[in-house]
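User: quick one
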Amino acid sequence: MGTLAPPTRDRLLVAAKELIEDGGYAAASVVAIAERAGVAAGTLYRHFASKEELFVEVFRSVCEREERTMRVAAAEMGDTASAAERLQAVFTTFARRALRNPRLAWALIAEPVDPRVDAERIAYRERYAELVAAGLSAGIAAGELPRQDVKLTAAALVGGCGEALVGPLSPLSAGDPDAEEIVAALRTFVGRAVGMR
Amino acid sequence: MGTLAPPTRDRLLVAAKELIEDGGYAAASVVAIAERAGVAAGTLYRHFASKEELFVEVFRSVCEREERTMRVAAAEMGDTASAAERLQAVFTTFARRALRNPRLAWALIAEPVDPRVDAERIAYRERYAELVAAGLSAGIAAGELPRQDVKLTAAALVGGCGEALVGPLSPLSAGDPDAEEIVAALRTFVGRAVGMR
DNA sequence: TACCATTGTGAATCGAGATTCACAAGGAGG
DNA sequence: CCTCCTTGTGAATCTCGATTCACAATGGTA
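Assistant: Done. Structure below.
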């Protein structure tokens, strides 16, 4: 047998992700997911103990990819880059990806969900914040950045950038000038906020 | 008759607010609200067309007070204060109040709700952001602050500070060192982020 | 007293989804 | 061919909270 037809389980995961991508969690009901995957509602329960379990898995795979991408972006800056530049690279990457897929980004960053899925969401946000906090600490140790409460700065930046980009008070909500312009403005903001010289 | 017993309508509003204060929207079901107000569930519908309408009213009254308090804080700085100092005062006030009542603050700022209530929530967030944006613009016009995308900075600050203080990735979630220490760290962060000299 | 408006009651009803379950439909092994 | 196991089906069921509604009280007015 060829690998032409993905197994049902995978089709369910993909269907759920796609539905969330353009309608948020509300659009991803069990019936809708099953329909998009081309199976009956009951079939979902042959592969997942519950809808939440499926969501958790979708979450993990998407967030892992995001985190990896941001780490790579920081690493790719090379040895000559300053800590602040590395952090700007992280947020620039974050921003470009979020702007490309705002609905999904919103779902990952802030949209509310059932407790178990929420726990997963918060765990990944914390990983993003830790990534940022580590960058800040490195910069402070190297004397490039001013002393500061790194946890607070990291949380404010992760939360704030997420909000500013895809949140309900995003400037984007009304009229999207140009993604690259926004990315540039965000880069400036991050630079100032971390205390870049 | 004296004014000793508040009218039912007011008791329902207060009950809803108190429930949200320490359990978020999830805790504020119609039955719970009615019970706390000392009436039957059906009574709520004698005073409000729906649960959402009641929430909208709770929202308005709380947010109006918050906004007023922040404006006053900015104004009280006097004529000698710089734009950055005024903005720091706004966020310091915001932070103290949020730290005193984190659950309510989170509900007002970010917790998701039904669309109609959400519209109200977003409207007030925008007013906070506009307040900040106006302060930024004044500072730029006066040559005190660097040119920047004021809407983005304002959105990132409002969202970010809310998140950092009471959000799911708040450093406070695990161990509360000291409110004033956090307020101080936030003041520093805001100063840097707006480009204070 | 009779009448009507307002306010309160709380059990019954609704609605929207998630979840279950009795019943196929293959397919592998004996 | 028989049996067991896995996977799929989709209508029926369950859950849970908002909402309704037939039925009191209460109080004011004619």
